[in-house]
Specification:
Keywords: Lyase, NAD. GO terms for molecular function: dTDP-glucose 4,6-dehydratase activity. The protein has twelve helices and twelve strands. With 339 residues, it is of the alpha/beta class. β5, α5 and β6 form a beta-alpha-beta unit.
Length: 339
Amino acid sequence: MKKKIVVTGGAGFIGGNFVQFMVKKYPEYDIYNLDLLTYAGDLTKHRDIENEPNYHFVKADIADRESITALFEKEKFDYVVHFAAESHVDRSITNPEIFVLTNVLGTQVLLDAAKANNITKFVHVSTDEVYGELDFDPTTFFTEDTPLQPNSPYSASKASSDLLVRAYHETFGLPVNITRCSNNYGPYHFPEKLIPLTISRIVNDQKVPVYGDGKNIRDWLHVLDHCAAIDLVLHEGVTGEVYNVGGHNERTNLEVVKTIIKTLGKSEDLIEFVEDRLGHDKRYAIDPTKLEQLGWKPTYTLETGIAQTIQWYLDNKEWWERIISGEYQEYFEKQYNGK
């Protein structure tokens, strides 16, 4: 029988890229895309795989225990790769409750379903933001042993879900891995995030907001490198272990914005410094040595990855314009609800 993998949040940015990656790489697996299709869920990105025999879409809320329990009992999944999460820090500051509901309770519902159905592996995809912040010392990095010190409601909710996953392994013997990644970028990134927001604004000669002085540092990871890392952890990761996924590409936010402006041949006058957001962490930087010892290496530098990403957005302007306009949400209604 074909192995069945359920990917939660498979209509989102990273989960969506992972669904495509797995459908194309493993025709011998049945890939189930489970997504509630909130504002950040977009199925138009899967038009090229939606008719593949090993791709399946299920609309469901991971926090809906009855629906998730029934789904797991029916399909008997072998693997769970859990991306589904509210992930926008600014939104978590204005409405923390939904982050707790989805990221914490939703994860617990999935863990219970996985435990009840004896899944082979549960991979929980988390973030480096659970570690808190680093200072600007370039010799310091997050490792898998760094204490969790989240600073925003978003990162606190992700840290809580990480601890639940660990507890289900320690208490019930559930076979799990946790991955913690640095900032992702690449195709199909939702336009509210820094890189796609900057590209879409610059293309239209609009001002690009930069928080504070723009000196906050992030380690940038191309989403396809991230997909390869999760694939490796899924198949080769030592049960119970945490793996950090970093791109070795630290840049200030201002440097990233200026790189995009330069590549598109526009003026830096489009940069608009705005009031810094609450709890804005200074720096994230990951040491991915443990994952590299498992056999993974990033293939993109930020230079090659940014160039590829900018070109993708130029070539797919129709996609992100539909996202900004909200038209993408109509696609699900027509395709799956017959409206």
